[in-house]
Amino acid sequence: MENIELTIAKDLLKIKAVFFRPEEPFTWASGIKSPVYCDNRLTLTAPEVRNDVENALAETVKREYPACEVLMGTSTAGIAHAAITGHILGLPMGYVRSGNKDHGRQNQIEGRLEKGQKVVVIEDLISTGGSVIEVVNVLRDAGAEVLGIASIFTYGMQKGLDRLAAANVRNVSLTNFDVIAQAAADENYIKPEDVARLIAFRNNPSDESWIRR
Asked: What does the pLDDT look like over 137-148, one tens digit per residue?
């Protein structure tokens, strides 16, 4: 039986949630040229893939964070995954807004969270780690004990790894950039020689020399 990293990688490729285009790079908002496009929201409209993802997230939480009491999704991409995973595990869930509401109780954390509760953050994608660390900090400021993150996919970029380490945050992803790049070559989504170009991008996104290889 395939390991879960490879199963999820093939799932994401099949529905083009992770889509490689090394010959025609995408341009990020920062201006960086990227050979990859990621939209894990597409898993929600692909029931078979969604089942694989949510069951794998549930198993990850049980295995890696057995003391978890509450799941908190990142806004907005992690909310549905936290809800479905929470349903599978029978755990309460909520989510963290990108900022406080400007009306009502002006909550940033939605859902009941008691001080001292052990929380796992559910995230769809980690690149540089900035947004998910902000979520962790909000939860910590509210008195939660954040056990770590369970995410669907991570680039494994050094900047992201360094930020997570500096914030003392553990992340466990279902799959990662290296596995998906190799699976893309094996499944003929890209040429085998493109794998090295993709890894060069991952290692240093600001260096565009991979485009000319």
From this structure: 999 999 999 999
The CA-based diameter of the chain, rounded to the nearest angstrom, is: 55
Output the CA torsion 158→34→75→39 (10° steps): -120
Tokens of 81: 């995954």
Report the range of poorest mean pLDDT among 97-106, 121-130, 150-159.
Answer: 97-106
Which residues fall within 8 angstroms of residue 203, CB to CB, at 6 or more apart?
158
pLDDT tens per residue, range 29-75: 778 899 999 999 999 999 999 999 999 999 999 999 999 999 999 99
Question: Which residues have CB under 8 Å from 10's CB, separation 6+?
Answer: 2, 183, 187
- Long-range CB pairs of 111-116 (<8 Å, 24+ gap) are 111/70, 111/72, 113/70, 113/72, 113/139, 113/142, 113/144, 114/143, 115/142, 115/143, 115/144, 116/143, 116/144, 116/145
